[in-house]
Design a protein that fits this description.
Strand content: under 5%
Distance between the termini: 107 Å
Number of strands: 4
Radius of gyration: 29 Å
Helix content: 40-55%
Mean pLDDT: 76
Low-confidence stretches: 1-43, 104-110, 425-442, 446-462
Strand order of the largest sheet: 1-2
Number of helices: 26
Structural class: mainly alpha
Order of helices and strands: EEHHEEHHHHHHHHHHHHHHHHHHHHHHHH
Length: about 550
């Protein structure tokens, strides 16, 4: 017997019921979230509360993998895309609502993905419902080695809208922020804000080949607008980044709007490192250097080729990480990656990146010039047409090779380097501008633990955040270094005598061996200058008749 809890109501599903009844009852529990629709300026109407079309697509048919409320109103109109019924259609739509051109055959390098219908196995669905071990509040699931094995084989698609929010711990975000989604929407509805204008420009660019986001009146566009505005409002220190649009639109294909927002909040605040989507992208930049370190460790020959041709892979891989691969890989692969990512954490991002580069290792080693290497790397995501082979390669990179502790160590190292590099000033810097404050004002809510928010906050919980370790001191030293460089540049402009003095810091080991010698020399000189100044002061003092003497 299995119990499913929805709010305060407990429903029991007898073990003797059929599989279809079990699936139907579980699905009904997941989708039942009715709320009154309001047409008021102060309240926002959520379209997820509306029911989708009565006639749902058959499994494997176009649009069959979408959330019911995301289905187009006129399914028949989208299915018949040619005026002549006897002619070959110019295009079709897949199970996820993506337009697939038919004139040149299947999508480039994705024939295997497109040829296999996306149909869920009822047997796997039943296996998952039995193995989950749901808690009474329906907000957690029992973590076990069995769950690990199930996730590796992929979450049944009909359960993703239920399990993804749980794996991302969205319940923790809801209770921690202390404000409802509707209240956030009401506060973030300003169309004239800086982020709202940029969001509006990107709405139709995010997923132009998907029926849910292709036109202004497409069902997903207003939902995407609200989610992105809500994210930019609740995280003003993060704001809006284009990569967020790809993640949010992909989530909206399968999750209700409110769940999508809380998943976005958990991804930004809990899953990814700090400052991943900030204006300087420090967190994302650090991850690119971490990826390069892992490539050097696991694919040394590829790393040598990249060094030889001076190829910076972050020009390509940064977009992979910023969008969690949703902008480059086929949606069927993205779903499997996100299953692992939401369960195991960000180590999956690096394992996928290393695995993808490994599939191109032979071609990279035989490439003749930099242009060929760059083309291979750029087209690499389109070459991924075997989701099972890629997932097997990812799983083979065990936690002993790429684990959380190792990644945190590498992130701290590279983040310190980036912060140091960012602080370097040229000798001809613009001194007319004040040195920017190393923080931004944050909305008074319990929200984003960005680097800056963690460092200057008074909250004891923030001070104990493990991501904050050693970063506060590093950032303070960076801004101290900036101030010293500005002072040095100022005096170089005053006196030509100082023009030949180098202001660049020396971090070499040899410089550390001279620290005591330099310190002692400076200390002696300071004492001499102090005695000389004291003597000059005394001389003038007594010359003026001070102390009773002439």
């Amino acid at each position: 017997m299995m119990e499913v809890i929805q709010g305060q109501e407990r429903k029991e599903i007898p073990g003797g019921t059929g599989l279809q009844q079990l699936i139907r009852r579980l699905t009904d529990d997941l989708e039942d979230n009715p709320s009154d629709r309001v047409a008021s300026d102060n309240k926002v109407d959520l379209e997820d509360d509306q029911e989708g079309p009565v006639n749902l697509p058959a499994p494997g048919a176009p649009f069959s993998a979408l959330l019911p409320s995301m289905l187009p109103d006129d399914l028949a109109g989208y299915e018949s895309n040619t005026e002549d019924p006897n002619s070959q259609p110019a295009y079709r739509y897949d199970e996820f609502g993506f337009r697939v051109e038919e004139e040149d055959g299947p999508e480039h390098c994705s024939s295997k993905l497109l040829s296999i219908p996306f149909i869920e196995s009822p047997r796997r669905h039943l296996q998952w419902t039995v193995e989950l071990g749901l808690e009474n509040d329906k907000q957690t699931i029992r973590k076990s080695s069995k769950l690990d094995e199930l996730v590796k084989s992929g979450i049944p698609h009909s359960l993703r809208k239920f399990l993804w929010p749980i794996l991302l711990d969205t319940h923790k975000k809801k209770t921690g922020i202390g404000i409802s989604y509707r209240e956030i929407l009401s506060s973030s509805s300003n169309e004239n804000s800086q982020y709202s204008k940029q969001i509006e420009k990107d709405l139709l660019r995010t997923m132009p080949n998907n029926v849910c986001f292709a036109k202004k009146d497409s069902v997903g566009v207003p939902r995407l607008r609200r989610v992105l505005r809500a994210v930019s409002w609740i995280y003003p220190d993060v704001g809006y980044c284009q990569g967020m649009g790809m993640i949010a639109s992909t989530l909206l294909l399968f999750l209700p709007e409110e769940d999508t927002f809380w998943c976005m909040a958990s991804i930004i605040d809990l899953l990814l490192p700090s400052s991943y989507y900030s204006s300087n992208l420090w967190g994302a930049q650090a991850d690119q250097r971490v990826l390069r370190s892992l490539v050097a460790e696991h694919l040394p020959e590829v790393d040598n080729v990249l060094k030889e041709h001076d190829i910076e892979i972050s020009l390509i891989t940064l977009q992979w990480f910023i969008t969690l691969y949703s902008s480059c890989l086929h949606i069927k692969i993205v779903l499997r990656i996100w299953d692992l990512l939401f369960h195991y954490g960000t180590s999956i991002l690096f394992k996928v990146g290393v695995s993808m580069l490994k599939t191109a290792e032979t071609r990279l080693l035989t490439a003749e010039n930099s242009a060929q290497i760059f083309n291979i790397l750029s087209s690499l995501p389109h070459q991924m047409d075997d989701v099972d082979a890629l997932m097997d390669s990812v799983i083979q990179l065990s936690d002993d090779l790429i684990n959380r502790e190792k990644l945190e160590m590498l992130r701290r190292k590279h983040l310190s380097e980036i912060m140091s590099d960012e602080s370097s000033f040229s000798l001809h810097m613009d001194t007319s501008r004040p040195v920017p404050r190393p923080w931004t004002l944050n909305r008074k809510l319990n929200r984003s633990k960005s680097i800056v928010g963690i460092l200057i906050g008074d909250d004891e919980e923030n001070k104990l955040d493990p991501r904050c370790k050693n970063i506060k001191r590093t950032e303070q030293l960076v801004y101290l270094k900036e101030a010293i460089l500005r002072i040095g540049t100022f005096f170089q402009g005053l006196d030509p005598l100082y023009q030949n003095i180098k202001l660049q810091p020396d971090y070499s080991f040899e410089s550390h061996t001279r620290d005591i010698e330099v310190y002692m020399c400076t200390s002696v000189n300071k004492r001499r200058r102090a005695r000389a100044l004291l003597g000059i002061y005394s001389f003038f003092y007594y010359q003026k008749g001070g102390g009773g003497r002439k």
